[in-house]
Amino acid sequence: MEQQSTVKKKRFPLLRVLAGLALAVLLGLIFGGEIPWFSDTPPIEILNDMDDQFKVKPQVGSTFYADRMASRELVPNTFPRNGVLYPLDKSDFEFVDSIIGANPLQRTDFVLNRGQNRFETMCAPCHGNDMHGEGTVVKKGFQQPPSLLAENSRGLTDAHLFHIISAGQNLMPGYAEKLPVNDRWTIVQYIRSMQESKPVE
């Protein structure tokens, strides 16, 4: 008579797996600083993940200079190498048309694509990609700039738009030091193309 061999099936160690996962999560929280050993002492940092860099953080004064500024003021009447000094101040609106003149760039696909790229990089955080003035920083509490699709924005000359981009207006800083001259003109062309394709607000 043949004997039947009984093979005992191995059961999946569910409890051990769950206990291991719970321990891994606990250790992750502890070493990640979420559970600082239930005390007021700083958490143990295996890798500080660049948290403690010698750098100036936003809205925090520098301790390197006595006046607590993070960098030095620009030397008067100087500009970057291969740069072009913008000749007007923020309030010089009456001179913009006579000094700056018309947009020297033709509205080609390359110019519009470049203008869109520069606008979405430098201008959209405040003005938004759709130019309504509801950019990311506005949604976080920053003062809303005017819509570039409004009637008064459409009434500005190209030179006036170029001047605002270069020197700034009200709370808006100037971008003459951050954007080359041609890039500023491409932004003007892109704004004009958007104004022509969108309804007046």
Give descriptors for this structure:
single chain; 201 residues; mainly alpha; Cytochrome Bc1 Complex, Chain D, domain 2; 38% helix; elongated
Give structural notes.
The chain has a domain at 93-197: Orthogonal Bundle (Cytochrome Bc1 Complex, Chain D, domain 2). The model has no long low-confidence stretch (mean pLDDT 85). The protein has 201 residues and is mainly α. The longest helix is centred in the middle third of the chain and has 19 residues, at 109-127. It has helices at 14-31, 96-100, 109-127, 136-139, 151-154, 158-167, 181-197.
Biggest sheet, in brief? none
Oligomer: single chain
The helix count comes to 7
Given helix and strand content, the structural type is mainly alpha
> How many extended strands?
0
Average pLDDT figure: 85
Short summary of the structure?
The protein is mostly helical and 201 residues long.
What are the SSEs and their pairings?
Elements: H1 14-31, H2 96-100, H3 109-127, H4 136-139, H5 151-154, H6 158-167, H7 181-197
Helix pairs in contact: 3-7, 6-7
